[in-house]
Amino acid sequence: SGRGPDDEPDSPTRRLRHAFLHHLFYTQGKFPALATKTDYYLALAHTVRDRLLQRWISTANEYTKNGSRTVAYLSAEFLMGPHLGNNLINLGLFDDARKSMSELGLNLDDLLYEEEEPGLGNGGLGRLAACFIDSLATLEIPAVGYGIRYEFGIFHQTLVDGWQVEKTDKWLRYGNPWELARPEWSVTVKLGGHTERMQDNSGQLHVRWVPNRTVLGVPYDTPILGYRNNTANTLRLWKAEAPEAFDFAVFNRGDYQGAVNQKVVSENLSKVLYPNDEHVEGKELRLAQQYFFVSCSLQDMLRIMKTQHVPLHEFHEKFAVQLNDTHPAIGVAELMRLLTDEHQMHWNQAWDITRKTFGYTNHTLLPEALERWPLELFKRVLPRHLEIIYEINARFLDEVRQRYFGDEARVTRMSLIEETGERYVRMAHLACVGSHAINGVAELHSELLKQDVLKDFHEMWPAKFGNKTNGVTPRRWIALANPRLTRLISGAIGEGWIKRLEELRQLEPFALDPNFRAGWREIKRANKRDLSDVIRKRCGVAVDPSSMFDVQVKRIHEYKRQHLSALHIIGLYHRLKTNPNLEMTPRTFIFGGKAAPGYWMAKLIIRLITSIGEVVNRDPAVRDKLRVVFLPNFSVTNGQRIYPAADLSEQISTAGKEASGTGNMKFAMNGALTIGTMDGANIEIREQVGAENFFLFGLTAHEVATVRGNGYRPQDYLDGNAELREVISLIRHGYFSRGDGELFRPLVDSLVNHDPYCLFADYQSYADAHERVGTAYRDSEDWTRMSILNSARSGLFSSDRTIAEYCRDIWNVQPVQVPILS
Ligand code: 26Q
User: Fold this and answer.
1) Which atom of ligand 1 sits closest to the CA of residue 123?
2) Is the CB of 442 under 6 A from ligand 1?
3) What pLDDT shows up at residue 2?
4) Structural domain 67-82+117-470+805-811, CATH architecture
5) Of 391, 214, 360, 181, which is closest to residue 288 (Cα–Cα)?
6) Distance CA 677, CA 395 (A)
7) CATH code given to domain 547-779
8) What per-residue confidence (pLDDT) applies to 246?
């Protein structure tokens, strides 16, 4: 009849189209003539949601039937990124959806960009949690992600006069089609007040916590699909609400204002994500948030045990609970409280269960990022937990004293309570004592943990310690973000790599095939053209896709050293101005990343970068060789356009400071070469891709420690480096601030006088490495070969590998296959 398969009555494309029109009408209540882009997005989202509910129900059914051992991943952050595209990929419906939309005159990409991404995280730690739940579902591991349903996620960053300005993130504005409220599983959480003790008839002592307020935790569930399997796990995020009973009580006293106010106070708990990472502030609301979601989650696990008739003493057999940093570490004390106070279990048995339940992942070595809570604050919010922590501590320190007879200095160091000066609860110590496994997130980081931050704990319990090098999901970061590359790779080696990333190795021989290289290069070029369009729209700057795209995107932090790159760009600028005929590989420097709103120095670094851009981009003497742009609002969505378009990945943290990094992995997978230090996972990336395909520079972690230990003097490096002196002098004299010599003074003074992150010590080495980069880029055939090898050898950095290791070494969980339900 001449009809193609897509015109068959029940072809996938046709069914999608029908379902879509159905939802446009019955869910959005619109005719095409009145429909907005948001309506179209929501209609498609609901169409996809219908297709995943089947899997969600059969998964829940299968897990319940088998009483499967389950991973509970506790994290204050899940930086999920948009769901629609990812779900289409995992369902295998992406191409069908594109087709059915285009048959309706709609462009799928336009609809995908309509989704407001759930930015419920700051950066690496939150995004890692998102990659992990993706991999757990793909590996068919029974798992739940537990966290907070923040009403406002990470702020939206805009640039005004080159400065960061924050806007609230109203991600729920148009509703969220991916979540389902489960009010029937709400739980009550107590806060504040005091404790009372009483004896029962048999003389047994009971502790009663009399809170001064309670809040209701309402779970909102989002299905998390595995890649082309039938698994749909759950992300369960808690929203705080006022308990109804309280409402009534106040209302009956005629205090309507008070009742409404109570509602406001309760809902505050899940109102907003704290936007500072790697720098903790002892804020009462933050502690309450942490306790809120942890208590909700542990109570939820107890409820699940009850419905599945699992006896309480098997808690650790039913659940493996992972603490994503110390943010949920209060869970150790909370589980003890639930088992002993609320379920009358004896201390020793409860403690045994608790330790077998928890694993703790550390994500930082920076002292300012280690959580400690002032004792008074802690007692005000969690009086009972402070008592429990004292009890844990007393028993623990007895053990320390026995083990290390007479070593009171060690006892002081290891105590869960810091008592020198103001007193604090040390959350990392609580997490260590309450867990059976402790891990860092890259080899170097795990080693430094053992030698430094957690040295005493490692000496006491060496077997508890391990390493789990981070990974990222190739579904979102290659298949979804880089469809062109995905097609090329799959054409060469099949599609297996999407689930088994090590298969990318099969690309190695293609690095020597000129045809394949040409295809690879053309894809990078097309991705760069796409990004150039975005840059033109967002920054008003025209960049040349044939220039080298040199990219640094990540949170703005002094230790990550965005300003080292800034200094070097000024160095290049200076070279070009003094020698107009200088041969230089044309470069476009692309920056992106948010600064914590209260981190003044980070905001000044953004201003420095935008200032350099303003000068460089309009200087006819250099603009053909140098462009500098700061792309506002770096997010998961923007990352998906940036990583595929990068030639060079900047991973330039001071060695020993970046626990792992994960952006470094996303770049390498997408064929960028790295310029980087011996820090975090850079070391392992270099080892995998080969030293000859990686631009290394800078001091090692050991050398940094030595240099600093010998009384580091940045001025000496300045005296010894003419270019660096010129760079500093240009900034000082207001060259990038219209003659204002004050603007960047805090930044310059900090560098010249302290330079806590050794920028000056690494400057020349960095500049030299960039010289090698420039030379290498000019040989485009060889660069392409190295680019292919970077991708081909990045298989280790799939979060599937990471999760398989957690399952084997820490969680002891097995996959459970979900049958197709018809
Ligand atoms: C804690 C208390 C109060 C307020 C905020 C915080 C807070 C919030 C977020 C502290 C730290 C964070 C985030 C840390 C983080 O993202 N760390 C990164 O984790 C990645 C995943 O393991 C690593 O790759 C990065 O190296 C590490 O910096």
Assistant:
1) 16
2) no
3) 41
4) 3-Layer(aba) Sandwich (3.40)
5) 214
6) 43
7) 3.40.50.2000
8) 62
